[in-house]
Amino acid sequence: MINGLNISIILFLVGLYGIITNKNVIRIVMSLSIIGNGVVLFFISLGFVEDSVAPIIIPGVDNIVDPLPQALMLTMIVINLCLTALALTIVTWLYHEFGTLDIGEMK
Amino acid sequence: MTSRIIKTITRVLFPFILMFGIYIIIYGHLSPGGGFQGGVILAMAIMLVVVVYGHNRFQKFVPYLLFIEIVGVILFILIGISGIASGRQFLVNLGTIPLLNIIIGLKVFSGLILMYLFLSRWELKND
Amino acid sequence: MKGEIVKKFVVASVLSLLGIIIITSTMLTYSTNLTSEISEYCLENLSLTGAINVVCAILLDFRAYDTLGEVLIIFVTISGVVLLAGRKK
Amino acid sequence: MIDHLPIFLLITPLISAIFLAFFSLFSKTEKIQKITAFIGLFLPFFYLVLLFQDLSNGVMEYNIGGWIKPFAITLVVDELAFTLAFITSIITFLSFIYSLKYMKNKDGKFYFFFLIMVSGLYGIFLTGDIFNLYVFFELTVVSSYILITYGDKKVSLKASFKYLIVGSLASFFFLLAIGLLYIKIGLLNIEYLSIHIHNIDTQTQIVIFSLFLGAVGIKAAIIPFHGWLVSAHSTAPSPISAILSGITVKTGVYIFIRIFALGFTLQNLNEMIMVLGAITALGGVIGALVEWDIKRLLAYHTISQVGFIIVGIGAFSTIGIAGGIYHIVNHAVFKGLLFLCAGAIIYRTGTKDIREHGIGKAMPITLITYIIAALSISGITPFNGAVSKSMIESSVYNYPLIWLILVFASIGTVAHFSKILYYSFIKSPKNFKKKKKYQEVPLSMQLPMLILAFFCILLGVLPNLWLDNLILPASSSIISGYSAIQIKFLDPLHILKEWIIVALGLILLKVIIVRSKDIDKLRKLISKFNLNTCIFIMVITLISILIFLKIAN
Q1: Min distance C45 CA to chain A CA atoms (Å)
Q2: Which of B29, B89, D150, D305 is the most buried (most CB within 10 A)?
């Protein structure tokens, strides 16, 4: 039962664990991107078709992987990148304003 | 970060990464790849140089990069409206896939470099 | 320090419970053949787009509207980063 | 001729945003930027009026890219999408005019993000494709993170960070649910999803629905998922929090309606949603009990009003859903007005704490508009809140417990808004010697407030104008039974009930004032919740929803 779909759900939960237990702000941003990668893995393994190749339609190829989740995931990866970039800019300002990176002490 | 070995290696590697990135963008719709991946590879080529030679020297390129961003979005919407001008719905493809690839490639390229330049402003002034 | 470990153990067990519920109730497996109708439609009309790489064809032709939204997201994030990081300290 | 109205509606704010960015690169003068922003926000009115005529002959579809329906991304303009797009254009245009004076010292880039957020909102309400819904929702949410940081310095950064983490968590839940739907049905068009959804096995349907509920719960701030909303909406600048509370929370409710209309074949789903809505309504009011900061109080009341809407939709009867949708419209109007009044008070007095206000008669326009908004939020007869609240309450008659919770919530609402009225306007401020003479806010801030107040009255006095041609067809498209309901307007039973609620509210106010000491103790307890415990509570609620649905089916 170890297939990409279940592993990505576990990856999702690992990221969730990271967000809940961590105090350091940068660690929270990192576990957020772990969750993002978990969801990307989930979508990619959604489209996987056993013993088939990448969706480039060359005359000799007939069994290809489902291309749609891969196209959706290109959009998704870029959005995760933008979220992480924005979060890190806000983290730099948080450190500058509050002096600490610990979310509990930011009063 | 400024030892001679690293500088010579970047001078050697830089053109190859650049060419590989451009190849991925232009041949995106024929071989595995596309606008996004090619743009990232291009950005990595420039990033290599910016990291090794210090980011302060490259801060003056920021207005040009912002200009690329805005022109990229304007071109994308113009292509969309060209679909309407041709009488059919918005974003109808009139053989414009390579052009869109190049636009997205340039956007992701300038976006990543801008992100690095602005986030690196907060570095402690050690080098 | 002891309270910290207990708290982490509780969180870990709650999350693994959530994982077990989702994994057991969906029982997902890899598909053996291409079932999604959208991909079949895209493969049929691929010749209209002129691209061989189906992922690129979907991204830039069949679902170009998604890519428009996503190009906007890059644009907004970059100007957001430029604005926030550019503010005087 | 294919009419391209839906696309023009979405593109105009975009093009003006891009021109604004172009101008801000070269010329530093603010004038051009404000004019382009004005054009970008004013044109959508014409498109919407034209759309309204086309809407009369059936739902409009627009396939992007020229592909056929279930495989291309289609823009669907039905009554529900039209009402929300119309309300968005009104509220965003008015708070743009309001922000001309209010954001005087901030730099020009503010309007760029403002316009992108507006085009994101139009994008959400128009798409008929579920992944596209995610992309445009992310566009709106990203631009609202940046807009929040325009608020007061330190606190808004922390609120924006918290909102970013919780918001992207909601998007990841949403994506997981889309993935599960795609693996079972292989389609992404919402209309075709609702056709094929019944042949998914119930176990997966349970997981899909609870993941969607988790995502929408965070976006629409249903009670266990509401942690982020209060700090985000209270620290944002007032015109932005007017839009956040008025429209962006409504996108969560809109997505909830679209998903709920997919037609999940699960038993007693409606009861669970109604209970969640009732808890949210009461929880928002209890949360507001301890607040002295005017904007945090309004943010808590946004949560409780969303609870009313969720109950209305959970009732899944024509009157319930019509009441819910009509309350979305009303809430956007009077909550936007309340935030603009709060902004006017803060603009003059500088402090957010209502105990230091004591404005008295110095600001007549703000006083009048505030009273109109307060009366309509607590649902007094001639104003718009009464119509939709009575519809929601009458849709829950056969669930007495939920009806009782809703009544308690409206009592709390009356108490809190008379508390603001009493402290901000009537009572002199705490330290008496600081009694400054406040003069009225400039005209460009008064105008939006007066227009919104006029809408409050118009929606309340003439409900049938909106109900018959917009709200009822919208609710009929969700449930097949279209029974034209006659709003029993001005019937004595409702008025009597309202005045009882007002009386009880004033008594509750007396109790709050007398016992304000131990309320501060309660405040300490509530303020202990930080980001980690909020998300932990969300996970626990998600598990309990999953287990409840598993037992019930």
Answers
A1: 12
A2: D305
Report the amino acid identity of residue D415: A
- Domain positions in chain B are 4-126
CA distance D8 to chain B (A): 10
Q: Determine the CATH number of domain A4-49+63-98.
A: 1.10.287.3510
Model pLDDT, residue C75 = 93
Tokens coding B56:
């302060």
Q: What is the mean pLDDT of residues D307-326?
A: 86
State whether residue C9 sits within 8 Å of chain D by CB.
Answer: no
pLDDT-above-70 percentage for chain D: 93
Residue with structure tokens 């999953």? D546
Residues D103 and D110: their CA atoms lie apart, in Å, by: 9
Q: Which single residue is written with the structure tokens 């086309």?
A: D54
Give the C-alpha separation, D110 to D151, whole Å: 11
Q: Let me know: does D222 contact D277? Beta carbons within 8 Å.
A: yes
Of A36, B99, A47, A106, residue with least CA distance to D186: A47
Distance CA D101, CA D114 (A): 15
Average pLDDT over residues D173-177: 93
Beta carbons of D208 and A44 less than 8 angstroms apart:
no
Contact status of B66 with chain D (Cβ, < 8 Å): yes
Q: Do C71 and B107 touch (CB under 8 A)?
A: yes
- Over chain D, what is the mean pLDDT? 83
Q: What is the pLDDT of residue C60?
A: 87
Confidence of residue B127 (pLDDT cuts 50, 70, 90): very low
What secondary structure, in 3-state letters, does D468-484 show? Answer: HHHHHHHHHHHCCCCCC
Q: Kindly state the helix (H) or strand (E) to which residue D63 belongs, with its residue range.
A: strand D60-63
Contact A103, D530 (CB under 8 A): yes
Q: Where are the domains of chain D?
A: 276-514
CA distance D218 to D212: 10
Half-sphere CA count of B56, side-chain side, radius 13 A = 6
CB contact under 8 Å between C50 and B108, yes or no, is no
Instruction: Find chain C residues with C-beta within 8 A of D546's C-beta.
Output: 18, 21-22, 25
DSSP β-ladder status, D60-63 and D74-77: antiparallel
3-state secondary structure of D481: coil
In this structure, which amino acid lies at residue D511? V
Distance from the A5 Cα atom to the nearest Cα atom in chain B, whole angstroms: 24
Please give the structure tokens belonging to residue D449: 């407030």
Q: Which of D171, D126, D121, D125 is nearest to D144 (CA)?
A: D121
Say how far apart CA B43 and CA B49 lie, in whole Å.
Answer: 10
The Cα diameter of chain C in Å comes to 65
CB proximity B57 to D under 8 Å: no
Non-local (6+) Cβ contacts of D516 within 8 A are none
* Model pLDDT, residue D526: 64
B52 in D contact zone (CB under 8 Å): no
CA distance D453 to chain C (A): 33
Question: In the predicted model, what is the mean pLDDT of chain B?
Answer: 86
Question: D3 Cβ partners below 8 Å, 6+ apart?
Answer: D54
- Provide the 3-class DSSP secondary structure of residue D189: strand
Alpha-carbon gap, residue B25 to B22, rounded angstroms: 5
Q: pLDDT over 70 for what percent of chain A?
A: 99
- Convert D535-550 to b/e letters by CB count within 10 Å (16 or more is b): bbbbbebbbebbebbe
Query: Among D186, D188, D215, which residue's Cα sits nearest to residue D199?
Result: D186
Cβ neighbours of A77 in B, within 8 Å: 36
**pTM, rounded to two decimals:** 0.92
If you write DSSP's letter for every residue of C2-27 in order, what string do you get? HHHHHHHHHHHHHHHHHHHHHHHHH-
* Helix or strand (DSSP H, E) at D26: helix D5-26
For residues D479-484, give the mean pLDDT.
61
